[in-house]
């Protein structure tokens, strides 16, 4: 079963969904994993407290980029409160393979960026 999940991660890494930018996003946040250099930016379009469109951009390892791609597929249509409730278990279940401590920051970077965006934090300057 792990092979199926690994193939899914590689597919999302090679063919990311929702990668790019939105015209006039309502919320944007960018962050970097200082340990490995992975970067993710998430942009959201929000209407009536619900995510109606999402895009991400970034660079890094297969785990960080696949996690962002998968996460953007999962959150479209969810309310901001539903997204605020997402946690580490949601990400590890979504990825479907055991994630060691070194790769956990890679896997969780997109969730960290998403939550900062949803909570309305300002983008970090470069």
Tell me the structural class.
alpha+beta
Please compute the radius of gyration using only Cα atoms: 14 Å
* CATH topology (level 3) name: Sufe protein. Chain: A
- Give start-end ranges of low-pLDDT stretches: none
Number of strands: 3
Spatial ordering of strands, largest sheet: 1-2-3
Major beta sheet summary: 3 strands, antiparallel
How far apart the termini lie comes to 41 Å
The outline comes out as globular
Instruction: Report the total helices.
Output: 5
Return the string of H and E elements: HEEEHHHH
Describe the structure.
There is one protein chain. This protein has 126 residues and is α+β, with helices and mostly antiparallel strands. The protein has a single domain, classed as Sufe protein. Chain: A (Alpha-Beta Complex). It is built from five helices and three strands; from the N terminus they run H-E-E-E-H-H-H-H. The chain has a three-stranded antiparallel β-sheet with strand order 1-2-3, with helices on one face. A hairpin with a 2-residue loop joins strand 2 and strand 3. Helix 1 packs across helix 2. The N and C termini lie far apart (41 Å). 31% of the residues are buried.
